[in-house]
């Protein structure tokens, strides 16, 4: 905890930048970021504690309860607060368990893409030359191919399961990180502190990891946060098309696909999974925008 003087000349305590108290105070300044953090915590909590929160087995059908409307707390023998689907499965339980797949795919795919993209961006921006040319041509090639066509082709070759989905999304989405990191590195590698590190004899790898990578970390964190939201939407889209994780594993996109045939007669089957996807993505976007405002020195006041 540091101290400073306010306008009246009084000594006040200021939280050290990067401390938990500092992050808490930054969060309190933004209502949308606070809402985003609450949404994410609910999302993560539902994923972790799904067996304790779900009132029913998400995969067990009850044919005598097919197309049950949302009870909304009414006193009934078998309450289904969000209703049931065409097989009598409880929608609330399925949404809670579906959050696990979205969280796993989002975090794992972004981790793979971030690792590959940051490494390629550092090499391309710092060393330049042939390495830069080759890496950027690979990036341009991947970006030039329509993503949906590429996903369909790869799923057709490798099949559809959770591991394949994470691998494909992770390997194909590293290009954004590479381009952002490359641009940042190219603007940093000729700065005075980098030249000073070279002058005292530090090797290239140490300069790259100790002096340049920490200065692009903020951009990486912001991009990775926003990419989690994108990956969740992509995973839901693939599951909706039948190319993602296959039954009996529950996914939100799969639930949307099941409910599209009953929108007129049982609106809740598709509506509530759609709300879950929208809410979780908005929460992550709110936090990502807040991180950009807090960490980006160009936007910091």
Describe the 3D structure.
This protein has 301 residues and is mainly α. The protein has a domain at 99-295: Orthogonal Bundle (MetI-like fold), CATH 1.10.3720.10. The chain is built from twelve helices and two strands. The protein has a two-stranded antiparallel ribbon. β1 (2-5) and β2 (11-14) form a beta hairpin. The longest helix has 37 residues, at 91-127. The two termini are 21 Å apart.
What key phrases describe this protein's structure?
MetI-like fold; elongated; 301 residues; two-stranded antiparallel sheet; single chain; mainly alpha
Number of helices: 12
Largest sheet: 2 strands, antiparallel
What is the name of the CATH class of the domain at 99-295?
Mainly Alpha
Q: Give me the secondary-structure category.
A: mainly alpha
For the record, what is the CATH homologous superfamily label of the domain at 99-295?
A: MetI-like
Task: Let me know the number of strands.
Answer: 2
CATH overall fold name of the domain at 99-295: MetI-like fold
Low-confidence parts lasting 5 or more residues at pLDDT below 50? none
Order of strands across the biggest sheet?
A: 1-2
CATH architecture of the domain at 99-295: Orthogonal Bundle
Q: Specify the overall morphology.
A: elongated
Helical content stands at 55-70%
How far from one another are the termini?
A: 21 Å
Q: Mean of the pLDDT scores?
A: 83
**What is the CA-based Rg, rounded?**
24 Å
Helix and strand element order: EEHHHHHHHHHHHH
Q: Beta fraction of the residues?
A: under 5%
């Amino acid at each position: 905890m540091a101290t400073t003087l306010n306008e009246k000349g009084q000594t006040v305590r200021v939280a050290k930048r990067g401390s938990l108290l500092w992050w808490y105070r930054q969060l309190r300044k933004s209502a949308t970021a606070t809402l985003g953090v609450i949404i994410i915590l609910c999302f993560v909590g539902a994923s972790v504690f799904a067996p304790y929160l779900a009132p029913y087995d998400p995969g067990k059908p009850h044919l005598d309860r097919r197309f049950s409307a949302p009870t909304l707390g009414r006193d009934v023998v078998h309450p289904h607060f969000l209703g049931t689907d065409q097989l009598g499965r409880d929608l609330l339980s399925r949404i809670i368990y579906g959050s696990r797949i979205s969280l796993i795919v989002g975090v794992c795919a972004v981790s793979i893409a971030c690792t590959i993209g940051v490494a390629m961006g550092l090499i391309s921006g710092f060393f330049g030359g042939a390495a830069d040319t080759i890496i950027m041509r690979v990036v341009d090639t991947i970006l030039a191919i329509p993503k949906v066509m590429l996903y369909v082709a790869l799923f057709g070759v490798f099949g559809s399961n959770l591991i394949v989905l994470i691998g494909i999304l992770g390997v194909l989405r590293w290009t954004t990180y590479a381009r952002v990191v490359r641009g940042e590195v190219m603007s940093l590698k000729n700065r005075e502190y980098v030249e000073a590190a070279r002058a005292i004899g530090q090797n290239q790898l140490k300069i790259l990891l100790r002096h340049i990578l920490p200065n692009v970390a903020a951009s990486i964190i912001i991009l990775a946060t926003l990419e989690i939201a994108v990956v969740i939407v992509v995973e839901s889209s693939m599951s909706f098309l039948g190319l993602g994780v296959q039954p009996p594993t529950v996914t939100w996109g799969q639930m949307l696909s099941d409910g599209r045939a009953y929108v007129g007669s049982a609106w809740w089957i598709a509506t509530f999974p759609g709300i879950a996807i929208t809410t979780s993505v908005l929460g992550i976007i709110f936090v990502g925008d807040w991180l950009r405002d807090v960490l980006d020195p160009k936007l910091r006041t």
